[in-house]
Amino acid sequence: MVEAVRTQGLFKRFGQQIAVGGVDLIVPKGSFAGLVGPNGAGKTTTLSMVTGLLRPDGGLIEINGHNVWSDPVSVKAHIGVLPEGLRLFERLSGRELLLYNGQLRGIPLDEVGRRADELLRIMDLVESQDKLVVDYSTGMRKKIGLAAALLHNPDVLFLDEPFEGVDPVSANTLVEVLRRYTASGSTVIFSSHVMDLVERLCDWVSVMNRGHIVAQGPLDEVRRDRTLNEAFLELVGARGNGEEGLTWLGSTTA
User: Fold this and answer.
1) Which residues contact 134 (CB under 8 A, 6 or more apart)?
2) Distance (Å, whole) CA 106 – CA 56
3) Cα 182–Cα 186–Cα 191 angle in degrees, nearest 5
4) Mean pLDDT, rounded, of the chain
5) Residue 250 CB coordination number (10 Å)
6) What domains appear along the chain, each with residue ranges and CATH number?
7) Kind of pairing, strands 156-160 and 79-82?
8) pLDDT surpassing 60 at residue 254
9) CA–CA dist 217, 207 (Å, integer)
10) In sequence order, what are the beta bridge partners of 76?
11) Residue 193 gets which letter from DSSP?
């Protein structure tokens, strides 16, 4: 198996809180991989360290065999990132944002324009290309953010909750683009806590809980004869908290 992403002993502490406690993450090249876990499991912190946005306190990170922190320029030239809490240059139009990103990446202006035209068309943003990003809806912002992340044709694409707050039509567009991207041999890694979505899209899954990887591998191996949601609940030790207490809830008694 050729690995697109590998971490070993990845560790991050915030004060007394251990956010990521020795993560060994593996993602095969060419896979559509899901990083799943409950809120607070450490998914965003892990992706932030893997993509060079947050310095780890310990551990090794490699993308396509290159160390992220000893060779950051080379690595960042070959990855695309759509982070959580997407921040964009909001006073640019959608098209200006793509042209600006392409020039930052050193792509010739004519080529940037050609790629921007194609991405705007595929993302169904042609009619909004001259509108300021500040006036974009959540779905439109996710689509223009993904377009910017794809503009330089990265080998590996990292997405943190890319479908959160996105309407079904925009989500379908994102899925079609990402499937086309992985079909070419590139790699997608996206975090989510929506198991049905991961089960529908991914061929590889890593399950995080309390700062650790508790299971990872091909989707069918992780879920076995269960749904991914059932496997997930078992792996993270979910307990029912709604069976006791709240006896007053729903009561018609004054």
Assistant:
1) 90, 91
2) 29
3) 70
4) 90
5) 6
6) 1-78+187-238 (3.40.50.300)
7) parallel
8) no
9) 9
10) none
11) S
> CA-CA distance, 72 to 66, in Å (whole number)?
9
Question: d(Cα 9, Cα 7) in Å, to the nearest integer?
Answer: 7
Give the chain's end-to-end CA distance (angstroms, integer). 64
Q: How far apart are CA 40 and CA 166, in angstroms?
A: 22
Structure tokens at 71: 């060779």
Q: Which residue has the tokens 């890593």?
A: 206
Is the confidence at residue 196, as pLDDT, over 70?
Answer: yes
86 has a pLDDT exceeding 80: no
SS3 at position 125: coil
67, HSE (Cβ side, Cα atoms, 13 Å): 9
Place of tokens 């002993």: 9
> Residue 166 corresponds to which tokens in the numbers above?
């996105």
pLDDT at 204: 97
**Quick one: which of 197, 139, 198 has its CA closest to 165?**
139
Residue 37 three-state SS: coil
Q: Which of 8, 22, 35 is nearest to 206 (CA)?
A: 35
Contact yes or no for 206/36 (Cβ under 8 A): yes
**With contact defined as beta carbons under 8 Å apart, do 5 and 14 qualify?**
no
Q: What is the pLDDT of residues 211-241, one digit of tens each?
A: 999 999 999 999 998 999 999 999 988 766 6
Q: Which residues pair with 150 in a beta bridge?
A: none
